[in-house]
Amino acid sequence: MIRSIFFSLVSILLFSACTIKQNVSEIEMINIPRGTYVFDQDEDSFIAGNEKQVDSFMLAKYTTQLKLYREYLKESSPDSKLLDDIFYIDDFVFKGNLPLPDDWPICYVSYYDALNFCNWLSKKEGLDPVYKILKQDEEIISVEWDQKKNGYRLPTELEWEYAASSGGFFVSYDELTKYGWVFDNSDFCIHSVGMLCPNQFGLYDMFGNIYEWCWDFYMPNNTYDKEDTLHDRVIKGGCYLSKKIYADYRAGENPLRTRYITIGFRLARNSDKKNNDPLYGIINQDNVCLRESCNIESSIIKYFEKDEKVEIIEVISNKETIEDCILPWLRICANNKQIGYVYGKFIDFCVK
Asked: Strand locations in the chain, DSSP E?
């Protein structure tokens, strides 16, 4: 599958989805629309070649930041070394004047550190914690995720990859420095969140800066010991030292022992359908066809004029080359309530 697709094929203006402000933490959560996503043919991916349905969900606009995580540490681990700015300076990952900025991404957190933080924040927000961490003789042995509860959680690998690529708007490494801090532009240090461009869904720093924990087990070649509940968990996105990163790149780390300067996390939540604002797009040229199906030869329902606003209902990953590129189809609702499909090249994502 062709991965080297330039975001410049789609005019990138205000491609930010609607956001929700939480009462206590003021975390900006992006409503990610449902879609169909085709995973790349990567031999190391346990989901290689599968077409998967992705339900709508919410994902944090930014990776979890220093200020909020330190509030958690002051309550849970007041002696934590992560409360001391000098700890980061000693690792040469911050270049600037102290104190560290509040919007610096938190790192040096294990998988279970992230889960405990999710439960803590859920309680702060009056939400139901989703994780039940099981212990034996004070040692963690496993974790259970109650998927019906509405609290904060880690994204699944499928959700993360779908969101990072905006449903299939892949980015080449040549353009990656516009969207992420990597080897070529990071100056070998971690940067505050949100300093570069967001992707079509309005998410910042999905590539580079720091890796992000995902819920899933790391299962290369679809083989792992199912009895090993502490098997490595997936990290995604690369870091400030990465030279080549794609949405489907994955690695695995120990969920208990791994605390690296290069790993943090991003919060997710189940979609709150009652409060979800629609995601809108703007037709970017005249005579764009609204079609009956995801096929360039399918019947035409109507023609759009440039700058018409449409509601994006679903993002559908695509394997075929159309107009010399591979981009998703978008199932949309026109102003006259007609529903059909438009090729992704002809719509710019925007805020309502």
From this structure: 19-21, 28-32, 35-38, 51-54, 57-60, 131-136, 139-145, 211-217, 233-236, 250-253, 263-264, 268-270, 279-283, 288-291, 300-304, 309-316, 329-333, 339-343, 347-350
The token pair at 79 is: 């002696």
What is residue 120's three-state secondary structure?
helix
pLDDT in tens, 228-280: 567 899 999 999 999 888 888 889 999 998 999 999 999 999 987 655 667 88
- pLDDT tens track for 48-75: 456 788 999 999 999 999 999 999 999 9
Matching residue, tokens 């949405």: 247
Summarised one tens digit per residue, pLDDT across range 71-93 is 999 999 998 888 888 777 666 67
How many other CB atoms are there within 10 angstroms of residue 83's CB atom? 14
**Residue 160, SS3 per DSSP:** helix
Give the C-alpha separation, 288 to 310, whole Å: 12
Q: How many CB atoms within 10 Å of residue 212?
A: 26
The rounded radius of gyration (Å) of the Cα atoms in the chain is 20
Q: In this model, does residue 10 exceed pLDDT 50?
A: no
For residue 12, the tally of other CB atoms under 10 A from its CB is 17
pLDDT at 103: 93
Distance between CA atoms of residues 63 and 163, nearest Å: 13
